[in-house]
Amino acid sequence: MRAIFSGSFDPITVAHLDIIKRAAKSFKTVIVNVGKNSEKTPLFSVEKRVELIKEAIKDWPERQNIMIIAESGLTVDVAMAYDANVLIRGVRPGTNDLENENKLAVMNQYLAKIRGFKLETKFYNSNDVFSANISSTAVKNLFELRQYIAAARCVPANVHEAMCELYLRELWLTLFKTEVDALYHWKDLLKAYRGRQYHNLSHIAYMLNMLQIYLSQNSHCTDFSNHKELVLAIFMHDYVYNTDHGDNSSIARMEVNDNGRMPLPYSNEMASAGVIFDMRNDLVDTISVELARGLVMATSHSGDRLNNDYALIADLDLSVLGTFERRVWKNYNTAIRKEYAVYPDEIYIPERKKVLERFAESNQIFHTSFFYNNFEEQARKNLEYELSNL
Predict the structure, then answer these.
(1) Backbone angles phi, psi at 285, to 5 degrees
(2) Rounded distance between C-alpha atoms, residue 87 and residue 348, angstroms
(3) Which of 40, 118, 194, 338 is catalytic?
(4) SS3 for 174?
(5) Which one is catalytic: 8, 126, 131, 136?
(6) Of 55 and 219, more confident
(7) Fold exhibited by the domain 2-132
(8) CA 289/CA 189 separation, integer angstroms
């Protein structure tokens, strides 16, 4: 039996994906129809939404039972065209969803009847309270509020990255004299960060969100206007990042360098700081290029004790170590493993242990009192957990 799940999916959320996965275990074929909603201005084009869904489910065992389409018109007509006799709908607890969906189900059943076929509706809700209350609108609202960390809990990683491309651009524009200059460099920034598993725009967004939290607790504001060098350095600190796995000889010479990193891939802070120098004439005059470059260099985590904004950006870069959510920690380590996919476990695991042990054995992971007081203890718990599971 075939079932169809229609929606705008702009963007698709983990709640949508939960429904799709569960339905794919119950039906021979689940048709996911990405439709157009004329009442809303879309965040992503239909084609982009289809692409994002396909990417999000590409590794699912259930993938063979799922068909992604993009058809307009009445859902009942699309269902009939694709020989689907079950309409899938998601309902959220504590809302009027079920009442409204029941009314819609009766109407769809009647519309199908006058077309000569049967169409029943199957409702899905979620056992996870958080996922059950996620909506595409809520995700967009979180991005508008720069709550990128919470938004990452609501959507798959590839969707979060795609949304960061849309929402971080506005902040980037504030760093340049003209929009033309900003967009020119934005294009290069996207090219530099695309395709990475962890050191990507989502990582930048995480740091910016933590900076917002830091400022709200220490400056009673979340305005970045007086911290342009810090914002620029956050954007640029992993700009030059070596992900070239073509040199297989690097595996044979697998040793950790002075700052505890494996040779590939790695962030070249000096080269990234150099890019800031190259764009200096296009940046707003209030930005100190030398300060921004120094802040980028602080993310090399050389082991030196830092202060002021140098300490802050170093802590922001490592702030994920102190996450209180196990899912975030798991996603972080999974993404790091994918970045080092060129290495087999027998090489990766012992070298990854060395990196984590270096932090675990340090007297103090975080430099600033804010991060130390709030996240140091949790960071050590996370490191202990990961080391015990490697």
Answers:
(1) -65, -20
(2) 46
(3) 40
(4) coil
(5) 136
(6) 55
(7) Rossmann fold (3.40.50)
(8) 17
Give me the catalytic one of 92, 115, 337, 358: 92
Q: Determine contact, residues 243/195, Cβ cutoff 8 Å.
A: yes
Question: What kind and span of H or E run contains 32?
Answer: strand 29-34
Quote the Cα angle for 52-148-161, to 5°.
Answer: 30
Spatial neighbors of 18 by CB under 8 A, at least 6 apart, are 124, 126, 128, 131
At 29, list the tokens.
């074929």
Residue among 6, 8, 16, 126 flagged as catalytic: 16
Residues 364-380: pLDDT tens digits?
Answer: 999 999 999 999 999 99
Q: Is 358 a catalytic residue?
A: no
Distances from the Cα of 198 to the Cαs of 58, 257, 297, 335, 387, in angstroms? Answer: 18, 20, 19, 5, 19
40 belongs to the catalytic site: yes
What pLDDT is recorded for position 266?
Answer: 65
Task: Characterise 308 by phi-psi region: left (phi > 0), alpha (psi -120 to 50), beta (else).
Answer: left
- DSSP, collapsed to helix, strand or coil, labels residue 282 as helix
DSSP run (H or E) holding 266: strand 266-267
Domain ranges of the chain: 2-132, 168-389
Lookup: tokens for 342? 């060129």
CB 215 within 8 A of CB 222: yes
